[in-house]
Amino acid sequence: MGEDFIIGPKLNELVESIVGSYRSDTRTQHIGRTYLPARAEIIQLVRDLLELLYPGFIGRQHLTEHNVAFHVGDLVPRIGEAAFRQIRMCLRYMEETQHPDQPDLDTKASEDRARELTTEFLEGIPAVRELLAGDVQAAYDGDPAAVNFDEILLAYPGLLAISVHRVAHSLYKLDVPLMPRIMSEWAHTKTGIDIHPGARIGHNFFIDHGTGVVIGETTDIGDNVKIYQGVTLGALSFPKDERGRIIREAKRHPTVEDNVTIYANAIILGGDTVLGANSVIGGSVFVTSSVPPSSVVTFKPPELRVKTRAEEREPKPESRPAPDLMPDYEI
User: Fold this and answer.
1) Which carries the bigger pLDDT value, residue 103 or residue 122?
2) DSSP letter string, 18-46
3) What is the value of pTM for the model shown?
4) Which of 27, 36, 162, 281 has the smallest count of CB within 10 Å of its CB?
5) In the CATH scheme, what is the code of domain 31-192?
6) Separation CA 291–CA 162 (nearest Å)
7) Closest listed residue to residue 262, CA positions, set 229, 307, 217
8) Is the CATH number 3.40.50.300 carried by domain 199-313+324-331?
């Protein structure tokens, strides 16, 4: 057994040094303020919501027609209470952040608003389930490796990411601060799929494989869209005001119209970029301007060289200029 570590007389000096770092830079501390949403409770809320969205698959099993109403009746109040606490905390957090010199703002008004938002959020759950049923169907129709719906619900990271997004987006539309982003980033850590809660996504959305997908805040995605791993729907540039500050309300991310398929590692950038309906975007293309409907966007196929290992050992010819690494894409 090793000896215990004892700081001894240097403890006070170390404490003062660490606390001094808190005072010198307030960006990474939350001291002297009251309100902050609880990340752990929000994550547990997401888990409970998934159980409500997918009964029998997540959480309690062996549900029947006779006990499912009791199960939902037990789950909804728990979800409602947690959602109310965190929505209220988020509203108070934003008020405190925006008005640090007014500690006596009307707490009852924020409580009443939190109740309204929580009720509206819970009443929207059947509509969220309807959207998710279409997403499950899209995954089954779009993936020949899918055995059945159960496999998709239990195993597919794309469905988990879009499920959390649909919930987070509901809160985003209600102008609940911070909470939707905590939900989305939890899903990001679990799946490798980064969907900002502000992104608007239509019916029957399917993310195949999923790892590395990025969908930005102002992205608009239509119905029956399918994307593969590594796809980025991102911003080309950030518009700024006369003082050089980013204009956060601007449309920065692409619009993807109905029935578009985007293959692996494609990068689509810009708020003015529109992928027209019924188009196919090939793998690894780089698109920064709009594509007409019913287009096929691909790179020219690269020239492949195949040699035997014996040929590889032969003297190499004189070096040639490196090829262009960013060829133009074709429409």
Assistant:
1) 122
2) HHHHHHH-GGG---S------HHHHHHHH
3) 0.89
4) 27
5) 1.10.3130.10
6) 25
7) 229
8) no
